[in-house]
Amino acid sequence: DIRLSKPQTNAGFTLVEALVVVAMLAVLASLATPPFEGTFRRYRVDSARESFIATLQLARSEAVRTGQRVALARRTGCGVTLSANNDWSCGWQAFIDTDADNTFNNSDIEIQRVEVPSNVSAFKASAVNPGFIAFDRFGSVTQTGQNFRFYPVNPGASEAMLVCFTTGTRIRTVKNVSSTDACP
After folding, report:
1. What does pTM read for this prediction?
2. Are 150 and 43 in contact (CB under 8 A)?
């Protein structure tokens, strides 16, 4: 009695085939990495800018709602070496400034505290009162010509953004700025 057996077929991959696929994926990933790095930098800068604008709007509305002075002050002591009094790279804090000293203390009421994402720098570009912004009870900024610059720690012109606002309520963003650009 002769029995014929079926030839065996492999259902898996050989080691060589698996290595070829891994090598192709590595090549494709290395080609895609540079564009993603720029995307991640832009996202972090845009996130910081959006948080800042949201805090401005919150501070303005709280000033009107409570009828009191509200201030935004730069934060320090976050582990980042701040380069100047106008460096807001640690973040900011919004508070009802009951004693009108532009500094958060025990008599003040904190509204919000924001940290800047890592690898993003934030600077108040205007020289007027570099460490704070204040809103009066009508929601108007008490200083004119305010602007902030947000950019990656390793700045690239395509990722930098400028936030411009005056005593009024209009906030504008200028994208793709250089370090010397000013608000229009």
Report:
1. 0.77
2. no
